[in-house]
Amino acid sequence: MPDFLEKPSEEASVARWQRFLGLALTRTSDLPDREAQWILQAVLGWNGTDLFRYAGCPLPASAGPAITDILCRRLQGEPLAYCLGRWSFMDLDLQVSPDVLIPRPDTETLVRWAIGQIPPGKPWRVLDLGTGSGAVALAIAHARPETEIWAVEQSAEALGIARKNGEILGLHVRWCCGDWCAPLPGDLGFDLVVANPPYLADSDPHLEGLCHEPRMALVSGPEGNECFGAILEQVRPHLQPNTRLALEHGCDQGRSVRGLLQQYGWDEIFTLGDLAGRDRVSGGIWKRQNAGAA
User: For the chain: N or C, fewer Cβ within 10 A?
Assistant: First the structure.
């Protein structure tokens, strides 16, 4: 507990607790007031309106210890998503744990592109490689419920969380455990393929700030682009004319990913910017008849 603040009493108002949390979180958060609000909402099961309406009421007796526990973990550097055990992505409330990456707003670029490619009402078959928490697959399933979605994840622990998220949300996805396309039926073709694979080099300085998240979901290898080549190689037997593909990547990897797409025979290659305008997603359309012979 921060030594520069006095913890409110159990009988203190919700507003007093919210002010306390906001001040305490200035030591570890860029959004301390927002995080204070999210913590209270999660523990109390309230929405933002409830928090305003009942601000002057005493904090429920059972909430103090849970709030204190979350605050202590957060002040030790644990990401808020893991402290809360869930996180929002494209209006979906997803369960998360240190077995999966925390869904990030930049990935919305990938998902919004995918949803825009799928004609409403058409039973497209979509493949999500490296699904993690299931965020991408489930967001597409939510927006295009008629779509047949397959999602592959190497980590059995992560896949368990993805399955649970699908069950809670009532969204149907065919979950597969394995390395990229290895667990897929050999003759299965897809209309659209998406992936948010590991794309950091094993010496990337950003890893220090990501120490709580699963390294295998972050690090691709010595160069940082190894997973892109593996995906483009393994997906070839599952391509058909006009299959669309998009890969999320680092903001400095657009040129190299476009080069790989060209090398593997993709047409109409493109790169999309994220919310900050940085290169974030690259892909193309498959125009050939025989993918395996590319």
Answer: N
